[in-house]
Amino acid sequence: MANKLGSTVIRVCVGSTNPVKVNAARQAFSQVFPNHIIHCEEMHAPSGVADQPMTEAETRLGAQNRARYCFENHASHQDMNFFVAMEGGVDEFEEGAATFAYVAILNSEGHLMTGRSANLPLPNKVYQRLLSNDELGDVMDELFNTDNIRQKGGAIGLFTNHAATRESVYTQALVLALAPALHPEHYI
What we know:
6 strands, metal-binding, NTPase/PRRC1, Inosine/xanthosine triphosphatase, nucleotide metabolism, YjjX_NTPase
């Protein structure tokens, strides 16, 4: 794939209008393709899952649905090199409740690459609110007296004192998910 990207510009359709997600995509592709100019276009893409996904499977599906929606509905589909989506979710594990993200990337031929971020442990009181159908961003805004944290550092930024952020976690997950695009000969 990397050798097929002869153009100096790589065009990425991001299945979100959230600046955190668009910036994460730009950052990830800039790291993976440092000799290219990265052009990101945002696009609203429905996830087809709950606003607050509560399982790994639902979170993965949400990211994949958003990426597929972009692939199938972008007006200048043939001009795009990649279609990218990110979905944050929550699940309960052996160690307790945690939030994480799934990322999905489709290349211009429709090959799907999926990745996942690390877990951020959640306090039980936060998890209980999510079980009551609250969204993580809203709970965090209330808990930390912030406004629209989902478009800033997210729960990750708040609980790590900004040592990591929602954007940095999305970026890392995207970089890792792009490995097959860099070395397709090993992922056949």
